[in-house]
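for the writeup, i need someone to sanity check this before i put it in the appendix. the sequnce is what the collaborator sent (i think, or maybe the updated version? ugh). structure was predicted straight from it, no edits. if anything looks off just tell me and ill rerun, i have time this weekend
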Amino acid sequence: MRLQSAIFDMDGTLLDSMGMWKDLGFHLLERHGVTPRPDLAEHLKPTGLRDGVAYCKEAYDLPGTVDELIEECKERVEAFYRNEVQAKPGVEKFLSIMKMEGVWMYIATATDRPLVEIALKHAGIDSFFRGIITSKEAGQHKKDGPEVYERALRRLQSNKKDTVIFEDAVHAVRTAKAAGFRVAAIYDPAAEDDQDEIRALADYYYRSFEELIETQAL
């Protein structure tokens, strides 16, 4: 199936970074001498950075403002993105194929723009995308609605019929499908427990970009 445009989530879809994000709340609490409760990961799973930090502050009565706590987290995140993050296997080859076929590509992510730019650059894939839109800029998180996708679509000057959204998280897949988008789900270990629902919801499902390249299903 030929595409005119594609919208990509970043963390867990293009980048092997969800392990870092999964542990971020734990590290923040431990830095403040607080023992996380067993349900912390479940609460933080569908949130962006600001909402996740705000939850930690309120639920665990952390000192400082939300903005101050966010800066603590950003130091860790920025160091990871600047020095360690890697694209998932097959990503660069897949994006190269898409670019050669004339597909316009955009990033739609919950991560803040400065961090996105650092991460994409270190992973060596920043040049493939026509732009970036973040949940903060769209004014709506993916779990709450599709505005980030809608804005990316408008900027690509495309339509839903000729566009595919690439996502790894079940809440994002739900939102995109409810808004009438086609969705290609990419497996990530951080979403292991959600794979049955993701597979049922998505139009396409792949264990990796290498599998996607081999099947040539898009």
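The beta strands are 5-8, 104-109, 132-134, 163-167, 182-186, 204-206. Residues 66-83 form the longest helix (18 residues).
thx in advance!!
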